[in-house]
Please model this.
Amino acid sequence: MIAGKMPPRKRTSSGNASKTTDESEQPDVIVDFRFEQGLIYIALINISDVPAYGVRVKFNKVFRGLGGECEMATLGLFQRVLFLAPQKRIETLLDSSRAYFSRREPTLIKAQVTFRDQRRRIFQREITHDLRVYKDISYVVNSEPGSTATIALTPPPHDFASTPRPEDPTYGNPKRQSLLQFQLPR
Model:
């Protein structure tokens, strides 16, 4: 329970898993990847009904997102979240599946999540994700508003060098405070 794996769940006589009173008061935090319309997202999620404190994530491999410009482990989201509310999900865009797999980024990623409860007990969870499951997924690509959607295994190529950039000097800088200006290829 402390500084180790999550405790095993007790089973009722019918075989269904049920939480003990002590377990229901323990936070449970995971890292998850989500695929939607050719984009891969990564999220930190408190799947429990109690808050988690001092949440940190360590990955076994370096992997980059946002066109290869941002080392994901350096985001504050994975460095230290002081308070993660119950059932809270913090999610960010990793990259388009085409860009991520074209760069040959790691596909087998282990995340070690460490967090505390309100009594300062430390918990640790290791999660392994295999992103190859997203590599060959088909999805719909809309090229223009109002046009007919097409089905694609990969999105159409995009020349990022010719894309006009806003006047903001921090645009495209992975160290900037906000990713609100990130624009996806059309």
Notes: The domain at 10-136 is CATH 2.60.40 (Immunoglobulin-like).
